[in-house]
Write a structure and sequence with these properties.
The chain is of the alpha/beta class and 489 residues long. 25% of the residues lie in helices and 28% in strands. Helix 5 packs parallel to helix 6 and helix 9 runs parallel beside helix 10. The longest helix has 22 residues.
């Protein structure tokens, strides 16, 4: 038996829809053969796969990060503009491939417009220079009679792109990154990049390169860059072969957000910073199977992974006051919810919880009280502090501003046991017909493929509720989204 209690007045914060952001990188088949597939009968005149666009639109992505990722630290953005047939082919060192440059800045902006997403560009702080970063801002956003703004116009784009979000490098702390730096050196370099980029367009908002959210790197970077940036990034991926270790792993992300938020609060207080400064969790996902570049990182996801994605999103909702945006990595083929072949695509298990919540989320997050059976993790791979106990029922709750609608996201993380659950809203739940949407499958190892695309999918059913507390049974290994009316018709 599990119990959930909700008070509509206990507001946790306001949810920024940018937590449902996406990410694409020049890696494997994410772009080439994924969103962009020239010559395919499934592509339009621009080279965009129309079946992929339709699937992406189902995710309601408000912001899209590009071009990396590790790729960006060796990328010269000027290779990717102008006539496509004249663009140079370059060796690509991050993922040991060849970059054709047929998809560049103009194609990225066009794709963002096609799917209704705001563009978020990460600049090269590896081999790149501050002048190249400044010029990129001018090319995208320049309105005057200047060289790079005129280059954009010459390439057929008279109006500025007005790219608002710019990342100051990617994972510059890592030995795998071209041009990796110590934290102090990154801060010195990033400040100079930030100055010329903001002087070029004062309206842009910059993202500083964070690590786990609570490391010494994060502390040094926050102290050094807080006056220049509006966001501090976090990258954490989780997952293992163990079902319970995986479905409880979003608690690591939630802890990272809490600790990073505390660091931000201290830095803002110490330095008297008045502008908003929040977290950009701009790479996140379940990722542990396909780690080698030769695999093209084409992770195949299970129902366990889908429940974990729901748990991440629940955590983002609970911590919404600290979180300005999040970008699931990545969008197509590479550790992605959408998987293509030359003849079509299928939606991986992780597609469905994301799509459900992105469509159903309300703007006001509520604190919830949950009493649930628990589970404790054990084994040599579990670090002290990560054992739990964890509630088997994971919950987030949001309502609209008018207090007329309530959305509940409920994850039964048990692999075997159904959970009879009572939901009590202090202000009452009126009688109504309730539509329940479940993401589930036959067992936690269930997966989708091109011939069995719906092994894990959304199942819709209707529940008659007579008013007062709501009692229902949440099946084992199921993510359930309910939308309730909060007032009588």
């Amino acid at each position: 038996m599990a119990r959930v209690r909700i008070d509509l007045d206990r507001v946790a914060g306001h949810v920024d829809r940018r937590i449902f952001g996406g990410f694409i990188e020049h890696l494997g088949r994410c772009i080439y053969g994924g969103i962009f597939d020239e010559g395919s009968p499934l592509s339009d005149a621009r080279g965009f796969r129309t079946d992929v666009m339709q699937a992406v639109e189902g995710l309601n992505i408000p912001i899209l990060r590009w071009p990396g990722g590790n790729f960006v630290s060796g990328y010269d953005w000027t290779d990717g503009i102008g006539p496509q047939d004249q663009r140079p082919r370059r060796p690509e060192l991050a993922w040991h491939s060849v970059e054709s440059n047929r998809f560049g800045t103009d194609e990225f902006i066009e794709y963002c417009r096609a799917i209704g997403a705001q563009p978020y560009i990460c600049v090269n702080m590896g081999t790149g220079t501050m002048d190249q970063a400044r010029a990129w801002v001018e090319y995208c956003n320049g309105t005057g009679d200047t060289y790079w703004a005129n280059q954009r116009r010459a390439n057929g784009h008279d109006e500025p792109y007005n790219v608002r979000y710019w990342g100051l490098g990617n994972e510059m702390y890592g030995a795998w990154q071209i041009g990796a730096l110590a934290a102090e050196d990154y801060v010195k370099k990033a400040i100079e990049f930030a100055k010329v980029m903001i002087w070029t367009d004062p309206s842009i908002e910059l993202v500083g390169c964070g690590l786990s959210g609570w490391s010494e790197w994060d502390w040094t970077v926050l102290n050094g860059l807080a006056k220049h940036v509006r966001y501090h990034s976090i990258h954490i991926y989780t997952g293992s072969e163990d079902h319970y270790e995986t479905v409880f792993s979003p608690h690591k992300a939630e802890r990272a957000i809490r600790l990073c938020a505390a660091m931000i609060e201290r830095v803002r207080y110490d330095q008297g910073i008045e502008h908003d400064l929040t977290i950009a969790y701009d790479e996140w996902n379940v990722w542990f199977r396909q780690r080698a570049a030769a695999s093209r990182l084409e992770e195949r996801y299970t129902l366990t992974d889908a429940l974990t994605i729901a748990g991440y999103l629940n955590a983002f909702i609970r911590q919404c006051e600290a979180l300005g945006m999040a970008n699931q990595a990545q969008l197509v083929n590479v550790i992605a919810p959408i998987f293509t072949s030359p003849d079509g695509l299928f939606k991986q298990t992780i597609y469905y919880p994301f799509a459900l919540l992105a469509a159903a989320i309300q703007p006001v997050a509520l604190n919830t009280w949950v009493d649930s059976p628990t589970h404790v993790l054990s084994g040599d791979t579990i670090r002290p502090g990560d054992e739990g106990p964890y509630d088997l029922l994971d919950v987030s709750a949001t309502r609209d501003e008018a207090r007329e609608r309530l959305t509940l996201s409920l994850v039964n993380r048990s692999a075997i046991d159904d959970l009879e659950t009572t939901i009590d809203v202090l202000q009452g739940i009126p009688a109504q017909q309730i539509e329940l949407n479940d993401v589930t499958g036959p067992d936690v190892s269930a997966t989708n493929d091109i011939t069995h695309p719906d092994t894990v999918t959304i199942h819709t059913r209707t529940l008659t509720h007579n008013g007062g507390p709501l009692t229902l049974t949440i099946p084992a290994h199921t993510h359930q989204v309910l939308q309730l009316r909060l007032s009588e018709d």
